Amino acid sequence: MLATTKQTLTLADTNSLFYQLAAESTQPGPRFIDRDPDLFSILLSLLRTGNLPSKARAFDLQDLIEESKFYKVESLLINSLSNPSQFEAFNLERSQLLPLNGRDTPSAVATTPFGTLHVAHGSKITSFDWSLRRKSTILTQFTAVDSLLAVSPNLAAAGATDFSGLQILDLETGFVRKTLNWENVTKSGSMVQAIGASRDLLFSSFESGRRNSNSIMVYDLNTFSPVAEIGHGEIFGADLDSAIPATKLEWVESLGVVMASGSHSGLSGVSGNVKLWDLRSGSAVWELKEKVDCFADITVSDSLSMIVKVGVNSGEVSYVDLRKLGGGMGSSDQWVCLGDKRKLMNVKKEGAGCKIEAHGNQVFCSKGGDIELWSEVVMGSRRSEDLLQDRVLRKNLMGRVKDMGGARITNLAFGGNKMFVTRKDQQSVEVWQSSVRGLTALRTGKHQTGAIDLMVLYRSQFQILVCMLLLCYV
């Protein structure tokens, strides 16, 4: 016989079966639940502590998931096994490989905060749930998906550089909920170059089919109705720099701005620009033109308050301190190189194909088949007058020796306590995972007023187990 309390059951969400049982405790008589009592015991322990007990290892995860859905407490299981707070950058190791259907290699990867994964490969998008157990694949109208963003576990925004429009896709049915277009002056198609989002807004970078104009459109994330247009650019004559489309969009929550960056390759090398757009005014509050060692890839870390790039010539990581930015134009001197400055004028383009992404308090940069991890080292005191002193970042190589190397990395993404990696010419996704640690109880400090006994009746070996909740009062 198992025992629990009414107060324990009320720790669950109000729409859960556990909470409903507690709410009905004033009614006399037992409560019958025709489910597996062993799994019930594990979920009860999860409810009490927020952690799965050690005996849960004896059960298949899918059985626990299905049982948690029956009791409507799957969120507890997700919190226990795939919580972003469990992500430990220095504790990541390659844990599994997720195969994809077909022969196409991944072109774009999108995740949700608690680990749902969407992978674009060819004209298909394959989705994995937070447990990475359930997989589904839909066929899109695109020849190849170049930009992908997870709006929710079952909804994504997708676009391509050779197909007009930004599509909002239902990833369970493949149905196109809505197609968003930018109406340019030439009335030609509008191709998606990048997608980004804040908590309430969706951003999309468009380029006209004639490739002579571009813009960044802002939409309401709930209704997908247009809110604003920023960054409209037109090419005049031979001045290609006047209208480089943004190929990366990232929201900077602390500043309330959108970082938009783009580059192109010409006879004089690779050039580009980085802009911070204020949505309230619709204007760029800061801009940096890239001529020397332009970025192969670039990202922004809100936690570290810096823009970080990997140089296309040098292959070295550099950053701009967001706390020291002034208004208007920036200077290339604002970049602080964390590696060998002598490589900045390298003509070998050692950084070509490198990827860089910020997550939490770290920056991850791919170099061929390996990953560098950059973290800030706190030097001295952290008093307010010391906040703008020179910053020190240190580099570490990711993973154990057996995890190192492999084909060139093409995508880095993060969700839950995991990092996802795709590689050139491989029809799969690598999962790098932190070890799961227990979480504290969901609620504490409440006096327990009632006891509920759980009794299991075994009628015969061939009959269904019946769980009975008998309410007692003390």
Automatic annotation (TrEMBL):
Pfam families: Beta_prop_At2g24240, BTB_2. Residues 106-433 form the At2g24240-like C-terminal beta-propeller domain. Pathway: Protein modification; protein ubiquitination. InterPro entries: BACURD1-3, Beta_prop_At2g24240, SKP1/BTB/POZ_sf, T1-type_BTB, WD40/YVTN_repeat-like_dom_sf, WD40_repeat_dom_sf. It comes from the Eukaryota. GO terms for biological process: protein homooligomerization. Residues 3-79 form the Potassium channel tetramerisation-type BTB domain. This is BTB domain-containing protein. It comes from Turnera subulata.
